Amino acid sequence: MGVWMAGWMMGIGGAAAGAGPRPDDGAALRAVPFTDVHIQDSFWSARQKANVKGTLAQNLHECEITGRIANFDRAAGKKSGDFEGYFFNDSDVYKMIEGASDILAQTHDAALDKRLDDLIATIAAAQQPDGYLNTYFTVKGLDQRWTDLKQKHELYCAGHLIEAAAAHYKATGKKSLLDVAVRLADCIDATFGPAPKRAGVCGHEEIELALIKLAGVTGQEKYRTLAEFFIESRGRADRGRELYGEVFQDQVPVREHQEAVGHAVRAMYLYCGVADLAARSGDEGYLGAMERVWDDVTQRKMYITGGIGSSPSTEGFAPAYDLPNDTAYAETCAGIGLVMWAHRLALIHADAKYADVMERGLYNGVLSGVSLDGRKFFYVNPLASRGGHQRQDWFDCACCPPNILRLIASMGQYVYAQTDERVYVNLYVGSEADVTVGGVRVNLRQETEYPWKGTVNLVVDPRGPVEFELYLRIPGWCRVGQGGSAGATINGRPIAARPEKGYLRIKRKWLRGETVVLDLPMPVERVYANPKVKADVGRVALMRGPLVYCLEQADNPGGVRGLVVPQDAAVAATVEPDVLGGVTVIKGMALSPGAPAEAQGEALYQPGAPGRMIEFTAVPYYAWANRAPGEMSVWMAEGVTLAERTRDAGITATASHCYQDDTLTALADGVEPASSADESLARFTWWPRKGSAEWVQYDFAPARRVSGVEVYWFDDSGVGGGCRVPASWKVMYKDGEVWREVQPKGPSEPGTEVDRYNRVIFAPVETTGLRLEVQLKEGASAGILEWRVLR
Questions:
Q1: Are 337 and 269 in contact, with CB atoms under 8 Å apart?
Q2: How far apart are CA 160 and CA 406, in angstroms?
Q3: Nearest in space to 121 (alpha carbons), one of 161, 66, 73, 77
Q4: Is residue 133 within 8 Å of residue 67, measured between CB atoms?
Q5: Are 207 and 156 in contact (CB under 8 A)?
Q6: Among 202, 272, 333, 399, which one carries the catalytic annotation?
Q7: Residue 206 annotated in active site
Q8: Is 694 a catalytic residue?
Q9: Taken in order 475, 479, 480, 483, is the CA torsion positive or negative?
Q10: Catalytic residue among 315, 359, 694, 773
């Protein structure tokens, strides 16, 4: 059965579900700490094991070999040399410490404990007498500190230090890093605030939520007051500072925010801080702004995977419904930020619509950011690929790997929430938790094979009889009120109740060892985007339970982007224990349209080959790119006209250089550019090389007869980019082992016009390869959106 995505999304995040009041006693829920939640299931236990064995080890290793840790020794005067890396590299070390501390809080590891002690001593040695700590400015010159809050991330780095310190203190009881954080926070508090202190906000939000966390750990209200000062100062030109603009969420005061704009990670961290303030104060101005932005994000700017921030140019939000698939930025850190924000709003409002989005992000757009072994990472998470997008060991800008580390380490905090009289189950994860409710200690034991199966067994075991309310989330993907909808029993007896704000409410006096069984049917669903999402018109996505699925070439050798899944095609789920660590896949029949005949010179019409029906296999999106490189797509065509041209398997592309975020497969992917500055397409560029002689080459197997080429140049000069059409170029063909220039039939100089194909027709040659030799313009790079070969 089909589900129109717009209507379905209203159920998980939109205004139709309503903000609703907070819990009856007026107090927000509180998360059950991850240290009180012991995860014991096949899905998340495997993720957490990989987090320790792979992600933590990779983070420690990379922070060591890339100079991130050595920067602290340089700042302390223990090592000579210049600062290494980006000016915000301190933050990667701090996030790594936070994640390691969260792991230490759950598993005794003497070696890890000692390693953190040594690292903290290294950090402490770099702190200045007044509490200031930032290795970039200490090495480069302390006279420059606080002079570029917009770009240089000083307060951002400080925020991550504070978060790491809070985590380490809670895990070990040691104040070694907390004392460093308090001195730094006091330095910031002595510098910034109402006059006569300095006005200012950080260009990258983070300090706000961190200061609120520090206030909770230390009991010092001044840190919360400082956080509120920073939040209230955003968008306020009357506070003696120049505004940074929309990219920095600094265009209008926070209470006046109407939509999500700018850099997505910055926005999420800001709204986390705002939510933390609102949870304490109930400030309607903050709550109203967040509801407006929430509706904008979840109804108009969020991918089906829970990814946000579609624009590569700003790493942020594009206009409503602008959700391209190949060029989706959907930064891993932004997905994590959305999970953090959704969790906070779920606690404030006790409304399952927020937990639905939290779940969506966790199982899809966040988990896709790390390989199954925990050692490789995505910075961006596209929803379609032509094979060039693969996880990396690390990045120069490495914010995502330590962010993944700390999220998965603290995963348990998202499972349960409570008040003194109520317990909420927000995620279905095999686990054991201890809570105190109604004044009685209660043990909760959850057994489930979620997300593969929708049956959840929850044993409620109080130390003595106690009355309280248990709230079980009915996920937004589970359609209530239709055939096969959710059902529940207590001790084998059915419960007759409808969800309230997305939760099944059970109020009773609980006795020892009572069992609640929740059944959430998991049919395969065909999901459709709102027609305003142009990239997905005529396309369908597959979901089962909380998981978004994709087609990957590893399972579909002929490629996936040319497949058509008709509306009446039957699909079914099947367990594959030997695929991707053991997953449930979706199988069905798809049409593989015949490829059109190759372009014959200037022919206007050409015949196409007949199509055929083949079986396809779809795998969970989070697990893609863990095998051989190849095509991938979440959204599949339902009609032949949208199926992409099958890639020519007889062509292999190489080049003198290809930028790390671009791909050679873009040269012949058959996707028509809208213009030379079309950033919605995958592309090939020689960036950052400028003014040099470069080449790009097609090798043919077997040899073929060719008579021309068409080249569509990439040129983003109109939007401030660094690529221009080249100064000149020529076409070479391979004659045996020698490259020779073709003999053009047309103009003597191959064209360099924008927004069109530049054609060169030449005397036909039989060859095993063509090469474009390109001279880049002085001070500029160049690229190609499409390169056609004519026979």
A1: yes
A2: 11
A3: 73
A4: no
A5: yes
A6: 399
A7: no
A8: no
A9: negative
A10: 315
